[in-house]
Amino acid sequence: MNTIKFCAFADIHYYPGVFPRDSWDWLDQILDHAEQEQVDMIIHLGDFTHTPQKCIDYVNHYNDFKIPTYHTIGNHDDDGNSHEVTLECYRMESGHYYFDQNGFRFVIVDPNYYKLDGEYIHYSSSNYYKHNALRDWVPPEQLEWLADTINNSPFPCILFSHESFERENNGVQNQDDVKAIINAANAKCPGKVRMCINGHYHRDFIRILDDVVYFELNSANYEWVNNKHECYPREVLDRWKLACNTVMYNDPIHAIITLTEDGSIQIQGMKSELFMGVTREMTGNPKFDSHSRPVTANVQSMNIKMNY
User: Fold this and answer.
1) CATH number of the structural domain 3-305
2) Which of 33, 107, 176, 301 is most deeply packed, by most CB within 10 A?
3) What pLDDT sits at residue 274?
4) DSSP structural state of residue 288
5) What is the pLDDT of residues 145-173, one digit of tens each?
6) b/e per residue, 2-14, with b = 16+ CB within 10 A?
7) Sheet (strand 3-9) strand order
8) What are phi and psi of 131, to 5 degrees?
């Protein structure tokens, strides 16, 4: 029976001097754990670094790890240089692609486009900041590719993306088109698409919708808060420029996921603590996000058997 075990993490935001946890050790803790667990592959769910070209040694440290590693493009991966440069640094031909391993198909979707005057424009060199209301689309050509990739797969599929196909009011804007592709494939062949995993929101959340497990993977680093604060000591605030906009975690939380052909899905999560006990409420920011999801320094665990 086909089984695969992989490590997934999201939103580590390596940006030396700007965001917290800019030591390679933070990433190495994830890689070392993946090796200890003898996973088959490792994937990040976007926002790996804000400046791939400037941080190429860090990027290659991940690229060249002894276990196969994969990238998902996040919005911030294209902040510090062009999208084309990011792809080159990440050794990707395109932001959307797939690969087959151990009897499963892993499909990486790229919703990092804004739609302006009917044109879909990929994020590049921070161009999307001027168009926040127009962000997060999967272009028609990619939707067609996605349908073909799923329908022509001989294996069950797992979808990865930075932004969510499950959040109704601040996820991918044409997520209904994506879910229609997923649900149509599952109607023809139950269990064809088994999971959708995303990052971006720095939240720990699982929802089963139409027999698909939607897994929102927490950040491996921190929670962003809009209202600046001074809850951390001055040496912390001085070390990282945007520490004043974060609620940090004590550990690089991530997940070890095991899938089995028979429909078993096991998520081995982690529990950490908020750095120095600082919560969103203490910083003058609301406790919940727009989906009433609180910040935690955890990735939950789950062990279920789906009947397809």
Assistant:
1) 3.60.21.10
2) 107
3) 98
4) B
5) 999 999 999 999 999 999 999 999 899 99
6) eebbbbbbbbbbb
7) 69-70, 41-44, 3-9, 255-260, 264-268, 302-305
8) -135, 45
Structure-token pair, residue 217: 């993977």
Q: Which two tokens stand for residue 84?
A: 């084309």
- Tallying the residues shown for the chain, one arrives at 308
Using a CB cutoff of 8 Å and minimum separation of 24, what contacts does 150-153 make? Answer: 150/105, 150/107, 150/181, 150/182, 150/185, 150/192, 150/193, 151/185, 151/188, 153/98, 153/100, 153/105, 153/192
Say which residues have a Cβ less than 8 Å from residue 234's Cβ, sequence separation at least 6.
none
Torsions phi, psi of 201, nearest 5? -95, -5
Smallest Cα–Cα separation from 95: which of 28, 154, 163?
A: 163
Closest CA to 104 of 239, 234, 291, 258: 258
DSSP β-bridge partners for residue 268? 256
Cβ–Cβ < 8 Å for 244, 282: no
Contact 194, 150 (CB under 8 A): no
**Count of other CB atoms within 10 angstroms of residue 40:** 17
Domain coordinates of the chain in residue numbers?
3-305
φ, ψ dihedrals at 212, nearest 5°: -115, 135
Tokens of 259: 């899938």
Residues 245 and 297: beta-carbon distance below 8 Å: no
Residue position matching structure tokens 């700007």? 18
Confidence of residue 288 (pLDDT cuts 50, 70, 90): confident
